[in-house]
Amino acid sequence: MGSKHHAPSKSFSSKFLSFRCSTILTLFMLFTSFFLFLSPLRHIREHIFFAEQSRFNGDLRDAKFPWNKLCFGPTFEKLKLAVFSKTWPVGAAPGGMERHASTLYHALAARGHEVHVFTVPSDRKPHHDLHEDNLHVYFAANDHGSVNISLAFDIFHKVDANGAFDYVHTESVSLPYWRAKLVPNVAVTWHGIWYEIMHSKLFQELLSNPDGKLPGPMIDLKEAMPKLIDEIRFFRSYKQHICISKSAGEDLVNVYQLPPRNVHVILNGVDEAAFMKDPVAGLRFRRKYGVPANVSIVMGVAGRLVRDKGHPLLFEAFSSIANQHPGLFLLVAGSGPWGRRYSQLGPNVKVLGALEPSELSNFYNALDVFVNPTLRPQGLDLTLIEAMHCGKPVLTPNYPSIVGTVVVDEGFGYTFSPNVKSLLEALESVIRDGSDVLQRKGMACKEYALSMFTAIKMASAYERFFLCMKNTIFCQYPLPTDC
């Protein structure tokens, strides 16, 4: 009797366990797939929230990371700032330096600070000074269209006489070091230092003369070291130094031997309202410029089409890989001598010419991946972070200024050494991953860009920096008003 009663129970138990195991296995597979799908975003969140987990508390001048990682609260103290900038964006297709300056100083003026910029128009033509609420732009050009520093200083002193400036800021050497010595409160933002430029010249020499058979080394490479020594010597003429990449900050401390408390990292930001994910605009852009509907991957490159931007590298690599993968398509935005050469590559390449700033976001949205083949490991290229804001992964060289600041996770895209073989391997990885993986990486890029590379984050960091330099109370973090 006992065996008759236990047999059904054993059978039921066996079926139940079988059902339970299969259910658990199915759920496990679903969660695993979901986990893998979101793994790039998981890595981003780890990076984004790491600062919160090990929250900084202390003097901002001791921070060893970009100030953009912190969240600064509102301030009621207003500043009067003087700015020296090489150029100011006027007309179509301004460069990255001009766009950075315009974004930063418009944002600071919008926060209630009085900003006076001494500069020249980017188109090198005569223009009236600009006065927009708190932002005042004075054009002081010499006969060649560059800044006439004597004239700029005359205007500077007149404005200063009507109320002293709280701080003076110069974009790179727009305010020469022999003038900077005469200014009591001055800070400089370096968009590229000679130590990085030396690496640029090295990469260009290796690419153009890989076997050393041509006469060389190039003259610029020979002169690089003396120029570096001169730069290290005059950098001390500036009191405070802002770097736009983490690696540059480390170089100023370790190579240029500047006091760590005088070196700060504030990353560039772009207007997140101007660069945002918009698939419809991307499709419209593709149709406008005749991108075939049956292509598998659309790549894009933007900027000046000149040698040091890496176009010989991309030209050779794409020429090789396009024959093996006919579904690959390349959009080239910009002007320069390499535009004509790209147009000779056939139907898989479309040269767009220089785009209006208003078209750039649509251009990024038309891509599956953005390529920046630059041979200049210096500064922080705005095109990378603009593309990331539009939800696009990036393909870029593995320079310290990039992998230490922008592509800090493999979930953001692909990196390569600045040679054709390495770029080809990276392109093969892009093709192998396909559009689905590229979309996931693009969303990870967008999330990271919003956490680090916005105009608001950049402006609030600069605002706090100038306040800190004026009054050390603002050097403490967090203040009661901070996030």
Automatic annotation (TrEMBL):
Domain of life: Eukaryota
Keywords noted in UniProt: Glycosyltransferase, Membrane, Transferase, Transmembrane, Transmembrane helix
Keyword Transferase tagged: yes
UniProt keyword Isomerase present: no
Gene3D superfamilies hit by this protein: Glycogen Phosphorylase B (3.40.50.2000)
Annotated InterPro entries: Glyco_trans_1, Glyco_trans_4-like_N
Domain Glycosyltransferase subfamily 4-like N-terminal: 94-272
GO MF term set: glycosyltransferase activity
PANTHER family: GLYCOSYLTRANSFERASE
Name of protein: Uncharacterized protein
